[in-house]
Design a protein that fits this description.
alpha/beta, seven-stranded mixed β-sheet, globular
């Protein structure tokens, strides 16, 4: 099995690094899929916070994939108009067992024709923008599944998405092994009150 992670300029790092960590641990502790980073070309990709990432494959030479994940970030504003990326996602979406998005990666899935008439979610700051597309049933949950399409809310939500996905695909024992290896047992601590509403968007909290 193989799990491809699409990366592109200005992709939000944790959108794919969090799921990457869960998936590579799945590979290590419970015979999960091999993980691959895929980009338009083989050259380094500069992400939203400045991380430089070296893809394993380009869209042209990428081997067959069982699963595909598309992250979000400011770069999605450009990538929804990138015919090479959209063709890759649309084509692989027809052959993959599951396609996942994190944060505003849902807009890439939509542009590739994979979200029409489906339930999905995205970063809280972009929920209304996703609704405005008119043909997506927006669900305000941490993650959402509709058939072979999975989507999550912003940034760190991708970690929860992957654990739920592993539980569904490989079973509870595999998910438990990954969660334990990662020591991913989120604290209940909440700082301030911003988490209680999506209505206010402070200047220092830019949508992804």
């Amino acid at each position: 099995m193989s799990f491809g992670f699409v990366i592109f300029p200005q992709a939000e790092e944790l959108d794919f690094v969090g799921p990457w960590e869960m998936t590579t641990m799945w590979h290590q502790v419970a015979e999960g899929p091999k993980c691959l980073l895929v980009a338009e070309t083989n050259t380094p990709v500069i992400c939203a916070k400045g991380m430089s990432v070296n893809p394993h494959y380009s869209f042209v030479d990428c081997p067959p994939l069982d699963y595909l994940l598309v992250p979000g970030g400011q770069g999605t504003r450009t990538e929804v108009n990138n015919p090479k990326l959209l063709d890759f996602v649309a084509t692989r979406g027809q052959s993959c067992k599951a396609v996942l998005s994190v944060c505003t990666g849902s807009f890439v899935l939509h542009a590739a024709g994979l979200l029409k008439g489906r339930k999905a979610t995205t970063h809280w700051g972009s929920l209304e923008r996703l609704r405005a597309l008119g043909d997506v049933h927006v669900i305000e949950e941490r993650f959402v599944r509709d058939g072979f399409i999975w989507s999550s809310a912003g940034v760190s939500a991708g970690i929860d998405l992957l654990l739920a996905f592993i539980n569904e695909v490989a079973g509870e024992d595999a998910a438990a092994r990954v969660q334990f290896a990662a020591e991913y047992y989120p604290s209940e601590q909440r700082y301030g009150s911003l988490h209680r509403t999506h209505a206010s968007s402070p200047k220092y909290l830019r949508e992804a």
